Amino acid sequence: MERPTTTLSAHGLEWLCVEEFAETLPLLDIERARHPDRLGPDEFVKDNTVRTVLRLRDPAAPDGPWLYVKRYKFRDLRARLKHLIAPTKPQVEWRVCRELQRAAVPTCDVLAVGRRRRLGLHREGFLISREIEGTVGLGPFLREELGQMPAAGRSELARDLAAFSASLLDNGFYHRDYHAGNLRIRPEAEPGRRLFVLDLHSIRCRPPGRPGVERMLGMLANSTAGLGATHEDHAAFLRAFLESWRGGPGPGREALELWSRRLK
Fold it and tell me: Which end of the chain has fewer CB atoms surrounding its CB within 10 Å, N or C?
């Protein structure tokens, strides 16, 4: 069931947020996002010319999951004029998150999107999401665990990745930056419920067609090859993917050979 949303003004910004977060949002120290040099090591995530990312404790649940705050900077006139027509990255992430949730595709929980405008032009954009508890990045997980994982565990993980990738595509989502760094895994969860997708502004809510599918799978294969995945792991993934992908040619031998050649 889709959660209701509400609008409000806080911290000098216009916000759209899920209703249950409306009381917490004004209590957050959003100003800290404008001063990354003052952040503690537990709070600082990244800072560059495009955005600042930090973590803050939830005032309503100080011992609970972190809240991730992204502050987008629209410093040049070209970017500001562009977003008179095109949605900003935080707006895209908000919309994509809700589309993924409608399709029951696991992702982060986006709580609020905010903007500050002057003379109709964007000056700042914000996105607030909740930490996915119990997860680690798929890249570090593979680097540390794959080499010592038994064959049954490797096969199970390949099937999980295949089913998750097929679910994205079958629900009409195309990820333009689909690699291990944009997936998270909950190692202790039961198979089939372990994976989560991130980098939501790179997701398009439309079927990609065969070339897009090839690009998605190719990006994932290339990223995992440097993390210990073998040719046998990739073959197991591809077999499971063709079995799971409703929009594909099926799991026959000819299809497997054809897609193996395409992804080399």
Answer: N
